[in-house]
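Usage example:
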Amino acid sequence: MHTILTDAAKLIHRNFEFQYVSIAMKDPTDEKFRYVVALGLIPSAEAAYKEIRYSHADLFDESVFPSTKVSTYTHFYMSEDAPYKPGEEKSYNRPSQLSVERANPDDMLEGDYIDVFMQGYLREVTGYFELAGTRSEKLPSKVTIRWMELIASLLSAIEVHKGGWKS
Amino acid sequence: MEVLISKRMKDPQGTKFLLERYAPVPNTEDEQIIETLDSLATHAKMPGQSTAAFLNVTARAIYKSFGFREISIGIKEKDGMFRCVAMVGLRDEVKALRQNLSYTLVEMMDTRSNPSTRVNKIIEIHLMEDKPLKEGEEGIYNRPSLIGKDRWGSDSMVEGDYIELSILGPNDELIGWIEVSSPRDNKFPSRSTVKWIEFVSIITATFLKLKETAKGGAR
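Running the assembly step on the lines above writes:
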């Protein structure tokens, strides 16, 4: 399953507009989400990513990670809302640009990111894609987001059949 | 602290912009198709679902999204024979007849008695002119009285024409097929429609193999 997740991240990185693609999965041993694949990040940011652990409650704590839910699967986290814990600035490729102001509503800034959640049959969250940094520096198109949701949905169906991502 | 609180407040204009830009209602044909395939993936997660039930959902998804009135899906069963398992848009008598037909791998691959134009390793186009109706075979067609009618244009798709998409296993071995015919506009589908159905055949192959691995059987 890890190979499938890595291939999916590469496919997204190669065929869509995101510069940074990472995938976090729920670890069945401690029920915490951790990043298992990260593409496009500088080594220090990738190392910081791999250290992060979130419980389900952490992940959806709107006081820490304010988001806009645009569909069943997708949440947008915008830099104005500072959607990161103190110290997590290290997980950004260009932390000095986190305070850049948005000139247009469709700009994609350094601190913006999108989470697309993978869900099991009972809609329980089993993992998520984290996507950031478009090459055009604009927010992705709607059809791109729908593609991300379809890929997440197909991966979660594969995960169900394989009995977990660690298989 | 005040600065921190103000930073943590969501920008209402920004939120409104995002909700409008990414509204879940599909605006384009591609978004509509992706939504249908997403519901197919959701069905695939259903615990204990039979292969036949999954293939019926797949056939209905193709019927709904790609403009074909007749869809059949067959798979290789445990005895090594290929049989039709899911059908949409066919008359009951045609369904009953097709359900009772079985083919060996050699018969499935026999291009002499079943000539076609191969587009790639998955897609074959079968034309009515290449396969004249044999006595006793009328029953497998939905509208046999239309067999042999003239083709009114090079892109017209007539009764007896069909597109067959192979469902291939991990080593490109044939494990099933999807057959589509009778488009609502009576024309051969666009390249993008065929590519979408090819994608469906790949998704179907993935779940057939996963089910087989989980249960040790195909059906």
